[in-house]
Design goal:
Strand order of the largest sheet: 21-18-17-16-22-27-32-33-34-35
Number of helices: 12
Helix content: 10-25%
Radius of gyration: 23 Å
Largest sheet: 10 strands, mixed
Structural class: alpha/beta
Distance between the termini: 56 Å
Length: 519
């Protein structure tokens, strides 16, 4: 192990390297100092170029950090990730076909690190079947030049599976908090763990190098052995950045690191608006003792609703980053959590999810077709990616998809127990055909899984290969505000119910009392 500057570390990255970068979202465990030095080296010398960039979760502040450091023409040959939304410059490169772009499920990319480390023939899983990840429907490709098949359809004992093929890792750029003089790395101040150990092992097995950025150094033998997440035997170069931030938005919050638990009154409440109405209705699907997942977007508000309604102790909230219990965060630090009971490595969390451990998953939707298939990944030239959506939606016992009924300028009024549409959104979400299938409703129904679609004005369920309208908000005209804005005509339940009037008043709903009644 050598202690070097960031500028010295990146000199060891060759042209054509397969570079794995750790971290998540808005700077969570992202080795930004090293990435900054790598970008500077390329701008100065034109090397290293033709890189393959691999990152499990989308990383960046949606301006010019994280994965966007690789945006310069000629620097990047291929991108493999679960999400591009945090790095718009890479979306532009993909849509212009200037890079080979693949988006694969977050859980798959997280879990395959262990297969790469062990030299196994890739990851075999049912996750992704009948979605755009399935090679029969695109194989996760997002640009025309992405011609290599990274996913293969196979059959074992008469059942279909996907084999995600192994790929080399020649450089792993990872992050921790403290390193000792032997290169042992701990992560006590990090907001997430990710898959640091498996990533380092994968690079080492391939004969690659491991660069780890940390905030501080400690004397040899002083780190508690159980706190070490990356053993020094796997580390080639250490870079110390004393100004390392916990996330892009937060210098350091001890609650994110699990050092303290924040008082519940300190947890941010949602303003009374359309997003809160949707999150509240989704939260009504919670039952006592349920193990839940909260996805990105509008569903992240459910943790704030649970806090306000004093039902956090009645349930177990989780997210794919590895948190069990507590309250997953919203906003720029989304992906982190507070007041959690445990945090596990990300591959292990996806093992739990893939094994059917979730009672209910709360996810967002962007487009829905007549069968209840969902797209959250791509819309023309806008490539979002899927994150953990496919793992979660395909394996949870029940999925609640949440979103506004229309988007782009939607304005509503509420407060008296009814809903009024002030201005309709420009974009329709219930369409005849979706661009990419991220959730296959027929496949889910064939496996006995349930799906609801919650909006501010109505609720649907997927049944018998089509959507059925089952609830309508007070004050909403079914024909004018719902059916006329859909590209298809859903089935309407014979006993169409009215949504709970409490959703449309600003005061707390009293959900705790309802949970106690269902015990």
């Amino acid at each position: 192990m050598q202690l070097v500057s960031a500028e010295e570390a990146v000199q060891h990255i060759p042209t054509g390297a397969h570079v794995l970068v750790s971290g998540s979202g808005g700077g969570h465990a992202v080795p930004e100092k090293v990435l900054e030095a790598l970008e500077a080296r390329y701008l100065e010398s034109g090397a290293p170029g033709a890189l393959t960039l691999i990152h499990v979760v989308g990383i960046g502040d949606r301006v010019a950090t994280g994965a966007a450091r690789f945006r310069h023409e000629g620097m990047l040959k291929r991108s493999i990730t679960s999400a591009l939304i945090d790095s718009p410059p890479l979306i532009a490169l993909a849509t212009a076909d200037k890079i080979e772009s693949y988006t694969l499920p977050q859980g798959v990319l997280s879990q395959i690190m262990r297969d790469l480390a062990a030299g196994r023939p890739g990851l075999i899983t049912r996750t992704g079947l009948h979605t755009f990840i399935d090679p029969r429907h695109g194989g996760g490709r997002q640009s025309p030049s992405a011609r290599e098949d990274l996913v293969e359809l196979i059959t074992i004992d008469g059942k279909e599976y996907l084999r995600f093929k192994p790929f080399p890792i020649t450089v792993a750029i990872l992050r921790g908090t403290t390193a000792d003089e032997d290169g042992n790395v701990s992560m006590e101040q990090e907001a997430i763990f990710g898959e640091m150990l498996a990533s380092a092992q994968a690079a080492r097995r391939n004969g690659g190098i491991v660069i780890v950025q940390v905030k501080r150094m400690a004397k040899r033998g002083t780190l508690p052995a159980k706190s070490v997440k990356i053993p020094g035997i796997l580390v080639d170069y250490l870079v110390v950045d004393p100004d390392q931030r916990q996330t892009y938005a937060t210098d350091y919050n001890p609650a994110y690191a699990g050092e303290i638990k924040a008082p519940l009154h300190a947890l941010k409440r949602l303003p009374f608006d359309v997003r809160k109405i949707v999150a509240r209705r989704a939260a009504m699907e919670i039952v006592p003792g349920a193990i839940l997942n909260l996805g990105a977007g509008i569903s992240t508000g459910i943790s704030a609703v649970c806090t306000e309604e004093a039902i956090l102790d009645e349930i177990v909230l989780t997210n794919e980053q590895g948190f069990i219990g507590g309250a997953p965060l919203t906003g720029p630090d989304s992906g982190a959590s507070q007041n959690y009971d445990a945090i596990v490595d990300q591959p292990s969390q996806f093992d739990f999810y893939d094994g059917g451990g979730l009672d209910v998953a709360f996810l967002s939707f962007a487009e829905v077709d007549p069968a209840g298939n969902v797209n959250i990944s791509r819309f023309g030239s806008k490539i979002v990616g899927v994150g953990g959506f496919i793992n979660i939606s395909q394996n949870a016992r029940k999925v609640v998809f949440s979103g506004t009924f229309t988007s782009g300028g939607l304005e509503i009024a509420a407060g008296d127990g009814a809903l009024r549409i002030v201005q309709e959104g420009r974009h329709r979400k219930f369409v005849e055909r979706i661009e990419q299938v991220c959730y296959s409703a027929p496949f889910a129904q064939s496996e006995g899984r349930e799906a609801l679609f919650v909006t501010e004005r109505c609720v649907f369920r997927a049944v018998d290969g089509q959507l059925e309208l089952i609830e309508v908000a007070p004050g909403i005209d079914v024909e004018k505000h719902i059916l006329s804005l859909m590209a298809f005509h859903p089935r309407v339940a014979p006993q169409l119910r009215e949504m709970d009037a409490r959703l449309f008043r600003p005061e707390p709903m009293g959900l705790a009392a309802g949970l106690q009644k269902t015990r």
